Amino acid sequence: MKVIIIGGERVPYFLAKRLIGSGYDVYFVNKSKELCDEYSRTLNATIINGDGTSKYVLDQLQIEPNDIIVLLTERDRKNFFIARLVQEYYKVKNVVTLLNNTENEDIFQRYGIRTLKVTDLIMNNIEPLLFGNKVMKDLEEELTNKGAEVLMIPIEYDSKIAHKELKELNVPQDMLVVGVIRKNRFIISRGDTVIEPGDELIIVCASERRSEAEAFFRM
């Protein structure tokens, strides 16, 4: 059984790293050559640089019916297209997708496509959907033992970091902005992501740097 992750940026890295550590055969598909090159250096996974909507690209994965497909692109329409493609052509039953707009949930459910709520994506929903709650409990315990924490920091209207691109902030190396919740939608953070008032930043940092991280992002 393979776990095939299509799309996304930083979220797939943490998910893939955990699954690889648990002995799963992980495949990663992304259009970004830069990201694929980075993951090729840092992950023991099969990395394919290509468009997940292309059947030619999907054929390279040798998808089987018992594989798990995880769709993490930022567009529901694209996730739905890929989900239906793998269901129809490869007879895959276990398809999980990021839900960017809750108004689209019914259409996914109608076709048996399980959805990840955006606000739960980082915290606790991917692995329970794939393998059950025990895996997530183990992960949380492992993160705690290793001194890692996940923070969700709201951006106030008078914040000094509002209206700035993420790359302008010079975030310390031991702090990572993995995503932004904006108007109940999850946005994968990139260097050119502009932080807006009302956003909620999802931060991963070392436990001993929690207070510093909160001070840094609450400027």
Name some characteristics of this structure.
219 residues; alpha/beta; Rossmann fold; Alpha-Beta Plaits; 2 domains; six-stranded parallel sheet; 25% strand; globular
Describe the structure.
This protein has 219 residues and is of the alpha/beta class. The chain folds into 2 domains: 2-141, Rossmann fold, CATH 3.40.50; 147-217, Alpha-Beta Plaits, CATH 3.30.70.1450. Helix content is 37%, strand content 25%. The chain has 8 helices and 10 strands. It has helices at residues 10-21, 33-42, 55-59, 76-90, 105-110, 121-131, 133-145, 210-217, and strands at 2-6, 25-30, 46-49, 68-71, 94-99, 114-117, 148-154, 175-182, 185-188, 200-206. It has a 6-stranded parallel β-sheet with strand order 3-2-1-4-5-6, sandwiched between helices. Strands 7-10-8-9 form a 4-stranded antiparallel β-sheet, sandwiched between helices. The termini are far apart.
What is the second-level CATH architecture of the largest domain?
3-Layer(aba) Sandwich
Largest sheet: 6 strands, parallel
Could you say what the CATH topology of the largest domain is called?
Answer: Rossmann fold
- Following the backbone from N to C, one meets helices and strands in this order, namely EHEHEHEHEHEHHEEEEH
Average residue-wise pLDDT: 83
What name goes with the CATH superfamily of the largest domain?
NAD(P)-binding Rossmann-like Domain
- Strand arrangement across the biggest beta sheet: 3-2-1-4-5-6
CA-based shape: globular
Total number of helical segments?
8
Number of domains: 2
Kindly name the structural category. alpha/beta
Q: What Rg is obtained from the alpha carbons, in whole angstroms?
A: 17 Å
N-to-C CA distance: 46 Å
Q: In CATH's first tier, which class of the largest domain applies?
A: Alpha Beta
Count the beta strands: 10
User: Which stretches are poorly predicted, pLDDT < 50 over at least 5 residues?
Assistant: 132-136
Strand residues, percent? 25-35%
User: How much helix, percentage-wise, in residues?
Assistant: 25-40%
